[in-house]
Amino acid sequence: DAAVMRQACFDAFILGNHEFDDGDETLATFLSWLTDTNYHCANNLAVLAANVVPGESSPLVGMLGNHTIITVGSEKVGVIGLDVRQKTMVSSSPSHGTYLLDEATTARRCIAAL
């Protein structure tokens, strides 16, 4: 539930296959609630899904990042968002036009960018 998650003040939220169970529109609504800046900490939350490519009419366009860097103590930690391509495309319901890229290829690209 987004209301409970907002209170936890997570640094990052990485999409998994179940986030797509009800399509892009439902996921976009959930992410809007999760990142609502009227609530404590929400403006710091990075929504990550580096290998998710929303369809051109998907409400997810512009909502997803690839990676972020967080500071843990005195260390900087790179966080990359990767969803499981095969499982998501087969058992969940991303909207028409939304697809997922290969996880390993995407991870290498993000590591190079970090």
From TrEMBL:
GO molecular function, one term: metal ion binding
InterPro entries: 5'-Nucleotdase_CS (IPR006146), 5_nucleotidase/apyrase (IPR006179), Metallo-depent_PP-like (IPR029052)
Any one GO biological process: nucleotide catabolic process
Domain of life: Eukaryota
Coiled coil: none
Protein name, UniProt field: 5'-nucleotidase
